[in-house]
Every structure is written in structure tokens, then in C-alpha cells.
Give the backbone structure.
Amino acid sequence: MTPRIVLGLWLAAACTPRGDTGPAETDADADADTDADTDADADPATWSGDVHPVLTDSCMGCHQDAMPMALTGDPAADYDTVVPYTDVADPSGSTLYEAATGIAHAAVLAEGSAEAGALLSWMAAGARED
Ligand code: HEC
């Protein structure tokens, strides 16, 4: 049950209106990494500890070699590959999340699962290579 509560907090943080942000908010690599820090009880998911293992376990079977988003198992190389599919301003609307949960291609991760939640949490916190 904890993952569900935590996911709710993530979603609440991700969906909180922040005024008139508009389409110009593309500063994904800015230092404003405290933006999504609502000081919830849960730490955001990390790339190396949470997200990369999900991707290697659940996605790399197909996503390697000539595939789009080809993964290698190396966290640093795979980070550069995966980041273009993220959206820190709209994690659940990202190509990464939509593909993983069955909107852009067949579902691999169930919405509401800990694995899908890790993707959202990581993006909501800025999709950092941490
Ligand atoms: C059973 C094989 C398979 C698995 C497992 C799989 N994918 Fe895919 N994925 C594909 C194929 C095939 C494509 C390219 C064709 C398409 O988009 O449907 C693709 C495309 C994508 C794209 C690019 C979509 C675009 O619009 O460019 C992303 C992102 C993606 N997958 C993410 C994931 C993630 C994240 C996972 C794991 C949670 C995953 N995939 C697991 C087969 C797979």
C-alpha cells in the first residue's frame, strides 16, 4: 500500500498548478531541482537505484541494438539514451511513461505499479542522473 500512497503524493506534486507556466518551460537542465520537492515522506526515485533497473529488467529485452531507445545496461550511456523520452514538466505525458504503460505501445508496466511510479517520481524530480 505504501507505493500507492507514495504515487499519489508524486502525482499530486506533478499536477500542482504552478501558475501560468506556458510552453516555454524547457529548462530541464536548470538548477531548479527543488521545484518538485514537496518534502513528502518518500524520496524521489533515482536513475541508478530505481529507474535504470526497471528499464533493464522490463524494456531492454526488446530495446537494444537497432531499436529506438536502444539500451546497453550501462547506466551512464543509457541515461543519455532515455532522457529525450522524458518530460519533467509532464511526467505522465512523457513518451517514456506512455510507452511503458501502454499508450504509445503495448503496456509493459501496469499503471499504479511501483515500477511505473518510479518513472513518474524520477521525472517529477527532474530526471536527474542520480
Ligand atoms: C516486446 C518488446 C518491447 C518491450 C518489452 C518494450 N518495448 Fe518499447 N518499443 C517496442 C517497439 C517494437 C517499439 C517501436 C515501435 C512502436 O513504437 O510501437 C518501441 C518503442 C518505444 C519507444 C519510442 C516510442 C516513440 O514514439 O518513439 C519508447 C520510449 C519505448 N518503446 C519505451 C519502452 C519502455 C519504457 C519499456 C519498458 C517499460 C518498453 N518500451 C518495453 C517494443 C518493446
Remarks:
- The helical segments are 2-15, 47-58, 75-82, 95-101, 114-124.
